[in-house]
Amino acid sequence: MFRFRCRFLGFRFHASSRLLVVGGAISYRALFNWTTPPMFIGTLLVGPLLQVFFFVFLGRELGVADDRFHLVGNAVLAASASCVYGGTMAVANERRYGTLGAVLLSPRHRLPLWAGRALPYVLNGLFVSAFVLTTAALVLGLPVPAGALPGLGLVLLAAAGACSAFGLALGALGLRFRDVFLVSNVASSVLLLLTGAAVPRETLPEWMRVAGGLLPLTHAADAARGLTAGAGLDGHLLGAELAVGAGWGLLAVVLLAVFERGSRRRATLDVM
Amino acid sequence: MTRPTRVLRLIGVGVRTHVSYMSRSPIEITFAVLVPLVYATLAVYLFRAAGDPDRLLTASVGAGLMGIWGSVLFGSGGAVQNQRWLGTLETLVVAPTPLALVLLPITLATAVIGTYAMGATVLWGVLLFDVPLDFAHPLLFLVAVPVCVLALGMMGLLLAATFVLLRNANALANPLDTPVWLLSGLLVPVTVLPAWTHPISWALPTTWGARAVHAAASGGDVVPPLLTALALGAGYALAAVLVLGRVERRARAAATLALA
């Protein structure tokens, strides 16, 4: 009996892992069949990189913070382009293309199903942040200590994960509202303001600082700044980023479940 | 009706139609109002943190100009893309009216929608941050903004002409947002940029339009940069007509208009 249960659990784990990885990869390829290398390079790599230069020169003119502050903050924020919009599209595009019904017909557990959809965006966001950080550091002549690289990798991964969970929570609104991209556009801009990527958080009012603390990327940006300045990895900041990500992930799963039930009840799953 | 009158009427009716159409789109309004408000807030906090409260109006006006450019950029890219998706691009191309005259009202309309950003950011600054509305040249400001919008609309026409060639114009539009903010001195003076970027800045109507609007708000010569912006905008529009003619002929010959 015990052996059977172990084998059964092993099978469940294998099936869930497969759903997470293979299902996520297929979904990513299907939903992004329209994209092209120029689109990827222009939107996800060049755009955020140029944004770094904009804020670095703005920072130099105003003297509010140094180059490192703006460079690292915006490099971490660069993950939001793929994670927030990606997470939103992971749900909203299924509805737009009429495949949501087929996905939700599946009897599989929703957690690996939706987490699998977010996974490619986590990797995407990690790649984008790493590219922007490396390129901007090279162009602006701001070296990153080699010893900080493992910690930076960890922080950027946590940031991309939290941001993808945030994107998925916004995407869940796509099951209920027609134009969810409106929400993701505003959310993306709000991240720029509240996470302290572009403006030092101590200059913001208290309520904005609190709101920023509940958003992804905020703690990761601070942790990454500390790492590039040679201060070592701040475990508290990394833990806070992971906790924020877990919170948004939980909210996403709950919202997806609630809106799925509501859509089934009202028969509005595919209604645009 | 004489030809110039017909052209003006076409542009007038076209701008009115497209402004009405875009004003009813939540996503257009979001881009035109909410996103610039975030940038205005960010700019005001940055300028305050820099201990530069005298330039808060510059920050609000700069954020508004950024919104106008964003509207023109994505609107002009979307102008052709939308017509292509709606299946009306072929109809517009075969109409007896030159394609440039059909697209110009769309790009002008995107710039007009962008002025929502200017209104919103200035009002936002006044209501939330007590930014004083002491324009150096209030009347010239009211002239400078529409002329800047006109120049940007003409620049948008060249963008739209270029985007006809591209299957997915967003690939070019997305990364063009911030470099133009930077190179045109919308929020940061172009003097802080490396010297090699200055010729690029001078070639952009946005640089001169922004200079005129900032001068009208904070002081300085308004008319010379305004006229320069208009002249450059006209040059861009002329280039757009030439590019569009070439693109249209090529697309007709290859039968790739809907696929380009």
From TrEMBL, chain B:
Domain ABC-2 type transporter transmembrane: 22-214
Cytoplasm listed as a keyword: no
Keywords annotated in UniProt: Membrane, Transmembrane, Transmembrane helix
InterPro entries the record matches: ABC2_TM, Nod_factor_ABC_transporter
Protein name as it appears in the record: ABC-2 type transporter transmembrane domain-containing protein
TM region positions: 29-47, 59-80, 101-127, 139-166, 178-196, 226-244
An annotated Gene Ontology molecular function: ABC-type transporter activity
